[in-house]
Specification:
The protein is 58% helix and 14% strand. It is an alpha/beta fold and 190 residues long.
């Protein structure tokens, strides 16, 4: 099973690459944000639990997030693998994911991080903000803060996966096709 953790700062192109890679390698793309929105919209037990924390401005506990992701994996028993997007965010979550996948007889094969310079990210997001309608893509100060938060959060995970020889930094600048080719070169060698 090819299980990937896809990382990259806001504007790095994770969503675009995940869409291409899931088709190319017949993987299931699990975006934490999408899973949360689906469970909350459909008022599942996990969704209502998550919403109770979100409504109070609190972080959703790892256990709830992990249970949601486990349910997504269980929905796809025939999958050739998964792309985890936006998860894990902490070492505890990475451990929980490893434990869960081990129970399925598999593991995370690689953490692929799209690497893009901050100024390129800011430019991309401001451009995207003109058409996306997302308020967090329209304000440069908010964008820069999102980038800073990303680096603060993921530095730990970079080291976590480096220790396991599973970290792969990929240049995220160039055409969509060039970036896909770089990521594919990593996946094809796993």
């Amino acid at each position: 099973m090819t299980n990937l953790v896809l990382f990259g700062p806001p504007g790095a192109g994770k969503g675009t690459q995940a869409d291409i890679l899931k088709e190319k390698y017949q993987l299931v793309h699990i975006s934490t944000g999408d899973v949360f929105r689906y469970n909350i919209k459909n008022q599942t037990e996990l969704g209502l639990t998550a919403k109770s924390f979100i409504d109070k401005g609190q972080l959703v506990p790892d256990e709830v997030t992990i249970n949601m992701l486990n349910a997504e994996v269980d929905k796809n028993p025939e999958a050739k693998g998964f792309i985890f997007d936006g998860f894990p965010r902490t070492e505890n979550q990475a451990d929980a994911l490893a434990e869960f996948l081990k129970g399925k007889g598999t593991e995370v094969k690689a953490m692929i991080a799209l690497e893009v310079e901050d100024e390129v990210l800011v430019k991309r997001l401001l451009e995207r903000g003109k058409t996306s309608g997302r308020k967090d893509d329209a304000d440069e100060a908010v964008i820069r803060n999102r980038i800073t938060v990303y680096y603060d959060e993921t530095a730990i995970l970079k080291e976590y996966y480096k220790k396991q020889d599973k970290y792969y930094g990929v240049d995220g600048v160039g055409s969509v096709e060039e970036i896909t080719e770089r990521i594919s070169n990593v996946i094809d060698k796993l």
